[in-house]
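Lab manual, section 2.4: Encoding a predicted structure.

Procedure: take the sequence of the chain (416 residues), apply the prediction step described in section 2.3, and record the output as structure tokens. A sample record is shown.
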Amino acid sequence: MAALGAGRAAAGGLLRVPQGLLRARSLGAWRALSAPAALRDAPRGKSENAKPEGTFQVTMLPGDGVGPELMHAVKEVFKAASVPVVFDEHHLSEVQNMASEEKLDQVVDSMKESKVALIGKIHTPMEYKGELASYDMRLRRKLDLFANVVHVKSLPGYKTRHNNLDLVIIREQTEGEYSSLEHESAKGVIECLKIITRAKSQRIAKFAFDFATKKGRSKVTAVHKANIMKLGDGLFLQCCEEVAELYPKIKFDTMIIDNCCMQGCLLPVLGRTAVQGSHPPLPSAQLVQNPYQFDVLVMPNLYGNIIDNLAAGLVGGAGVVPGESYSAEYAVFEMGARHPFAQAVGRNIANPTAMLLSAANMLRHLNLEFHSNLIADAVKKVIKVGKVRTRDLGGYCTTSDFVKSVIDNLHPHYGA
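Recorded output:
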């Protein structure tokens, strides 16, 4: 609110933010959930002198595909909005031969200083080159980015099959099927280990319930496959149930992953005997057919990857859903549905909405509330008016057209 007040008092479009606020740094996942414990003084590193006084340093990884174009869009909008952020840009890419342990260490060192990053999709090639863990996963493990949060929310003015959606997908993203533990036990036989631990299952469950409490959400749904993976997913489900008991005001339920993704009613297919016989009635509508039943969903790694992309399609696709990942110390802001969109590279057609909204969320995380609202409101206004839309939303406009329209909608917000 201090940043908002400063913005209203600014003259000629220039923003002055209290120095005390600028010195405050947010150190990770629990900042939004318990601010007093998470706001600390910024560490003073060797690059501190390289940035202007009164600005925030943010690590930037453009990534692959249209990532660099989307980051350019963010820079243009930040410049137009006079956002007090300086980007420490690094390029980490396996497909562009810009990935090495040295580059990974440079990114980690930058994150240790900034605590906050804005990243594009780092594409993971399918070819096995001696390392099972991708650089994307290695980065997330080094920073212990255990919680991925994707807020799926309808955009006013853009109609889809389901309007007024508002649900949150929380995904554990440091273990599960992404543990990179595979080997050939016999010729033609590959064993791939899925790791589920009590400590990390309890941690992500607590994160989900803390998130629901802080944000005024009423229900948490644990998504699993414990009917088949009785030990692995069974442990995850048990941890969620144990944590749920500590939050009596939050409703808790569970759902099997394939049921969660179900598109419609199965009863007409089964016939009258299924309805009138001894079989229990099957759920008639889940995520695709009736997403309104969900509020906050928490799940292991792979399920979260699938649900993120499925849910993004309900509100307009990968181009409009922002995402973020948290550890106890760091915060990374990215697209909710991670897709490099390589076929759009250089064609000026990518939708920058998701990246701009992620950048706005990042500014809110940095307590730059005024700038956050300024940019998010401008993006949403462009979509609501509907005159400038990229191809994925049924329009014919370019990325540059969209960015220009967002910038044009920034200025009316500045007080005269």
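Check your result against the sample. The chain is about 35% helix and 15% strand.
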